[in-house]
Amino acid sequence: MPLSHIKRRLGALEIENQANLQTVHHVKADDEVIPDTFDAREKWPNSTAAAMSDRICISSNGTDQTLVSDEDLMSCCSECGNGCNGGYPLQAWRYWRRTGIVTGGPYNSTTGCKAYSLPPCEHYGTTGGLPQCPSEGYYTPDCVGSCDKGYTLSYNDSKTYAAQAYTIIGNVEQIQLEILRNGPVAAIFTMNSDFLNYKSGVYQDISLDYFGTHAVRVIGWGEENNVPFWLITNSWNEDWGDKGTFKIRRGTNECRIENQVSAGLPRL
């Protein structure tokens, strides 16, 4: 696959837009303990694959499992970036707070206002049961201000909103406290070519072959063979990497993973 086609599938643009978000600073209580290992999927098993939907579920103690529409954000937020060609996570959180994003589930679902319209496909030579992605990728769907046919609520009545949108200072303890208290966070890292072949273990860049920037979701941390790591979910389906997840070295700002972490709290 041509490198230009691979780069088109990265989740973040080269330079993040300044969204004028506040930066939170958590004060650790004297009796507060940060565990050596943590996996948000174990603490909050009902949370979902996207950080915004995670936080609705977590903030409501599991009573509200609304899914936020990926497609509505991708196709309707003009300041968030270039749709399928990558975007700015900080602007996405800001858009959720200011404009709102409707509900919506995965491809072929009927659980929300606007389901994802692009069928899942295989990424980067993975060999699951999905068809191969188009060589040039998918094109961004048009922004449609209405819900899918058959959905009972109106588009405006289906919107979810953030009460807060913010960044987290690039400090390991601050990022850990944010995840422990409020759930998974979004992060951007500089991706190099060797990352495409990741299968398992703690990723440490050795190629120095810069490829682009990618947006991911940090869900926890741990240590493997005396190397501390962040536990992260990717967006390239579960047959990529370690069932769709990967580990990257923690505490050294590997590939700038700790530089630009962002999150928000939902308006319930």
Please provide a brief summary of the model.
Belongs to the peptidase C1 family. By secondary structure, the protein is an alpha+beta fold.
Describe the structure.
- It is a single chain.
- The protein has 268 residues and is α+β, with helices and mostly antiparallel strands.
- It has a single domain, classed as Cysteine proteinases (Cathepsin B, Chain A), CATH 3.90.70.10.
- It has helices at 3-7, 40-43, 51-59, 70-76, 89-98, 172-182; strands at 22-24, 38-39, 101-102, 159-160, 162-168, 185-192, 202-203, 210-224, 227-233, 245-249, 261-266.
- Strands 1, 2, 5, 6, 7, 8, 9, 10 and 11 form a nine-stranded mixed beta sheet that branches. Strands 3-4 form a two-stranded antiparallel sheet.
- It is globular.
- The model has no long low-confidence stretch (mean pLDDT 89).
Gyration radius, to the nearest Å?
18 Å
Order of helices and strands: HEEHHHHEEEHEEEEEE
Beta-strand content estimate: 15-25%
How can the largest sheet be summarized?
9 strands, mixed
Domain Peptidase C1A papain C-terminal: 34-265
GO molecular function: cysteine-type peptidase activity
Protein name: Peptidase C1A papain C-terminal domain-containing protein
InterPro entries: Papain-like_cys_pep_sf (IPR038765), Pept_his_AS (IPR025660), Peptidase_C1A (IPR013128), Peptidase_C1A_C (IPR000668)
